Each structure stands twice: as C-alpha cells, then as structure tokens.
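Title: Request for sanity check on Glutathione S-transferase UstS-like C-terminal domain-containing protein prediction

Description:
We are preparing a figure and want to confirm that the structure record we downloaded matches what your pipeline produces today. Could someone re-run it with the sequence below and paste the raw structure tokens into this thread? We only need the token string, no images.
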Amino acid sequence: MSVDAVFTAHVILMVQGMPLTTAGEQVFVKRAGVDSFVAFACEGEKRQQVLVSFESKLEGLAQVFKRDESGPFVLGAKASYADLIVGAWLRMANTSLKSPEWEALRGWHGGVFGRLHDVLDRYAHTDRGREVQL
C-alpha cells in the first residue's frame, strides 16, 4: 500500500506523458472530476517541487531495496511480488516521464530503481507463454 501511495501521489508527473487515446484521456477526466485533460498539466516550479517530493518520498522504499546487497530485489537475488509492483510503476515512469526526469529517477538513492528497472525490463520483452526464471 505504501508503494502505491507514493507513486500515486506523484503520478501527476506522468499523466501528460502517458500514451493515451482520446477516450483514455476522457476516463482520467471523468474519474478526477476535472473539465479537461489539460487540468493534469504539471510544469515549471510546480513540477520541480513534485519531483523533489517524489525523490524524498522514495527514500524509504530505496532503503528496503538496499537491505540485502546480494541483488537488485527486495529479497536480494530473489524476485518477489513486491519487486513486480515497483517494477510496474517504474515501467510506467520510463514510458511517461520526460527523459531527463526518468534518468534522474534511475539514479536516485544510489541507483536502486534504475537497477531494478533494468533487470525486470529484460523479462518484459519475452515471448508470451515462455517461462522466465528470475
């Protein structure tokens, strides 16, 4: 729950970069109760403040990943469901953040999120139905 709360609180950074159709944008508009998709714009000083907050709020999660130094996962060398949840958020960030922001996120807190994304990304491009060993 804490992972989703941190990412959800900062998703405003990603919304404008999501590859949504017009219908998809309208779903966001309706659920948020705003007039248009433009309401999700986050630029300038406001964006910088949200980025600083995001980095700060990810500190605790980064510490969880640093506990076991044997690998990039929460459990060290063994992947868990928790890694997949964080990895999904990171994949969304990779797709929707501005490139310099994504590169910054990858390096935050000693690069734990960049390493996790990279190791999970190898498996995102496998054939369906093929068993993958993590």
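Thanks, this matches our download. The chain is about 65% helix and 0% strand.
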